[in-house]
Amino acid sequence: MLRYIYGQDLINNPDLRDSMLRDRADQFKRRLNWDVSVDQNGHETDRYDRLNPLYVIWQRPDGTHGGSMRFLPTTGRTMVADHFAQLTGNIRIESPLIWECTRFCLARDAGREVAPALVLGAGEVMQTFHLSHFVGVFDARMRRIYKRLGVAPDVIGESGEGREALGVGLWEMNQDAWAPILQRVGINRAQSRRWLEQSLAVRPSNMSLAKAG
After folding, report:
1. What is the pLDDT of residue 150?
2. pTM, whole model, 2 decimals?
3. Which residues pair with 101 in a beta bridge?
4. What is the biggest distance separating any 2 CA atoms in the chain, rounded to whole angstroms?
5. What is the distance between the alpha carbons of residues 136 and 209, in angstroms, rounded to a whole number?
6. How many CB atoms are located within 10 Å of the residue 45 CB?
7. Residue spans of alpha helices (H) in 25-154
8. What is the mean pLDDT of residues 121-130?
9. How far apart are CA 132 and CA 75, in angstroms?
10. Domain 2-131+188-206 is classified in which CATH homologous superfamily?
11. 53, 71 in Cβ contact below 8 A?
12. 178: DSSP letter
């Protein structure tokens, strides 16, 4: 199932939190060899985890992490603005209608439903918070995944070639994307909305941007 959890609330979900951060270390440090920090507990975290982001997490039946994404409003600090400005022509992407999406992570043994479930969760976040786009950095591997799921980004800028290529893009969730994504996850839209409402314990119509960031 999908869970929607703010950073400050991860303490209430220790098994889910710890397995997510360990899977992030496994993916970004061990498998992709990124320059990221892993602590003595085997957790991968960075400064943006301290900004109370909203996490969309696929929780397995045993309560552990199967995959996740992290969201922050672009009206605050973002990875794109702080580290990848050269890819946007040094133009800061900042709008209450745009959030940054980072740390797309899949557990090593994640099922086929997990990646599309995360895209589904992103679409629910976009609709619930009345967003127009997400912005994020992607590599060649992620570009292929997004294209396969029917949510390829509009590329703003990119550098490098082949496996070393990096880009910054904008995503939106058009209406044509919902049905195939729901089919891949194996649920209907009503179930998807229930997961969001149960996680945040409020009706979506009562949500605001205030808690994030």
Report:
1. 81
2. 0.90
3. 71
4. 45
5. 19
6. 16
7. 79-83, 114-128, 140-148
8. 95
9. 14
10. Gcn5-related N-acetyltransferase (GNAT) (3.40.630.30)
11. yes
12. H
Indicate left, alpha or beta for 193 from its phi (over 0: left) and psi (-120 to 50: alpha).
alpha
Which tokens hold the place of 94? 């900042």
With CA atoms as reference, report the closest residue to 88 among 78, 80, 77.
80
Give the position of tokens 């729901």: 182
Task: For residue 16, give both structure tokens.
Answer: 């889910």
What whole-number distance in Å separates Cα of residue 20 and Cα of residue 157? 30
φ and ψ at 84, to 5 degrees?
-130, 30
Mean pLDDT score across all residues of the chain: 90
Give residue-wise pLDDT tens across range 72-105. 999 999 999 999 999 999 999 999 999 999 999 9
What are 127-170's pLDDT values in tens digits?
999 999 999 998 877 888 888 888 888 899 988 877 778 899 99
Pairing of strands 98-106, 133-139: parallel
Over 60: is that where the pLDDT of 205 sits? no
Residue labelled with tokens 């060649």: 140
Domain residue ranges in the chain: 2-131+188-206
